[in-house]
Amino acid sequence: MSKVRVLVGTRKGAFILTSDGKRDKWDVSGPHFAGWEIYHIKGSPVDPDRIYASQTSGWFGQILQASNDGGKTWFQPGVKPEEAGPPAFPAKASNRFVYDDSGETGKPLTTHQWYDGTQHPWEFKRVWHLEPSLTDANLVYAGVEDAALFRSTDGGESWHELPGLRGHGTGPDWQPGAGGMCLHSIIIDPSNPNRIFIAISSVGAFRTDDGGKSWKPINKGLVSDYIPDPNAEIGHCVHHIAMSPSRPGVLFMQKHWHVMRSDDAGDNWTKISGNLPTDFGFCIDIHAHEPDTLYVVPIKSDSLHYPIDGKLQVWRSRTGGNEWEPLTKGLPQSDCYVNVLRDAMAVDTLDKCGIYFGTTGGQVYVSPDAGDTWSAIVHDLPAVLSVEVQTLA
Amino acid sequence: MTRCLRHGWESTNSTDHCHPERSTLGGPADLSPWGKRSKGSVLTRLNSDMNLATSQVRVQLPYHLRNLAHIDGEVALEVTPPVTVRAVLDALEASYPMLRGTIRDHDTLARRPFLRFFACEQDLSLDSPDNPLPDAIARGKEPLLIIGAIAGGSPDS
Lengths: 393, 157
Fold this sequence. Notes:
CATH architecture of chain A: 7 Propeller
Shape of chain B: globular
Strand content of chain A: 35-45%
Number of strands of chain A: 29
CATH class of the largest domain in chain B: Alpha Beta
Strand content of chain B: 15-25%
Largest sheet of chain A: 4 strands, antiparallel
Strand order of the largest sheet of chain B: 5-4-8-6-7
Number of helices of chain A: 1
Helix content of chain B: 10-25%
Shape of chain A: globular
Helix content of chain A: under 10%
Structural class of chain A: mainly beta
Order of helices and strands of chain A: EEEEEEEEEEEEHEEEEEEEEEEEEEEEEE
Distance between the termini of chain B: 61 Å
Oligomer: heterodimer
Distance between the termini of chain A: 7 Å
Number of strands of chain B: 8
Strand order of the largest sheet of chain A: 3-2-1-29
Order of helices and strands of chain B: EEEHEHEHEEHE
Largest sheet of chain B: 5 strands, mixed
CATH architecture of the largest domain in chain B: Roll
């Protein structure tokens, strides 16, 4: 029988929730990396037992963890306890993310805008998102703050920036939002290995068609009234983007206000908020087998990061946007003031597609029937930062 | 041939790397214990060749770093004199490579902002990492404390 493994990153560790295909009885493992912020934890599509995790702390910085046994045990790639000798500038370090400003391979580091309008140097803070390759278990992409894209080809032992993104031209005009200038979404096109989509908070979405060497902003059609030029090429606060593997090139976006759709790989976007009670939110995802069935969690506003009237609702569209319906059965409809963060929703690929999301209140909900009914897998985890799901044979 | 027992270097010519202004060739002082070349001379590490005694230094780490390194209690490190914060951290990271980047930046080696170094009831965090540590640390009588700032609150991002 099939199984599912839910990978949950929280502010105080990672949790792994497993169940069979019925998805009604769950085993909970964790906290792994207790006390650390686990911004993201995701498995390789090639080898589901290979899982990568971003472990971070304001005190101690970034750690990269990996597992080869589905999360039972973990190791820091490339770190060998028996190593000896001078430690300075080791050739490989799985937690070393250095912007590539070398003359041969990199781009000048330059600066980006700061909150006060002055220019500020790029500074690495943490890994926000890990995206394992669709074809190679040792190839992983990392989206980091301050925004940049890194890639490892050795299972996370070492990381190298794809500098074409940061250095493509608009970099000096990028500036952080309140949550940081983070590269939070990475989508690898299954039909074209050279095409990757990324999104950066308070900057916008970008696409490469040559494997990461060069990039272009793909924000035409986005309108953001809170920036000086609402139709600017960059500066839009994209919260998350999603694409169905079965329909490459059709993208969906949850923005800081507005839910958007592109049918041409991001070249043009149209608003599909339709009848949503509010089109502010963070996460967005797509049914595994119905590429026009979308899920969002409407959040009242950017000033109040919680659901309208204390009612936690997922809204579903079965028409690719514009027409939405509330999903409430099993979700709290009073006194619920949690948020659902950008990477905290996921879907499994079982025949009856399961939808999952985690809240800042520590709940992780599952719907085994594509959103018709919901139940809480766990109630009292630390604030959930990310949710990913693996469907195991 | 010139040598300095205090800093553990030997030069193939008369370059005085501790006081380059006195040297016939001059050039920047380069006191790396790992034998980096300086201008006009060959600089080598003496300590291992001359079997200078190492100091056993005690270090106390914050809870999360003890967990990361699978350490229970204090760490005892063999440190080649001079015993400085830099030398202690070099020895710590050599023995526990999973701690690289967690106490000081990988490349600049600057102390991470929310960590502090204490020894003999003094905060040494703002001192040069190359200053000799108190004798009590070098002799293992007192530990070097690496402490995380007690900073409260967490942004909801």
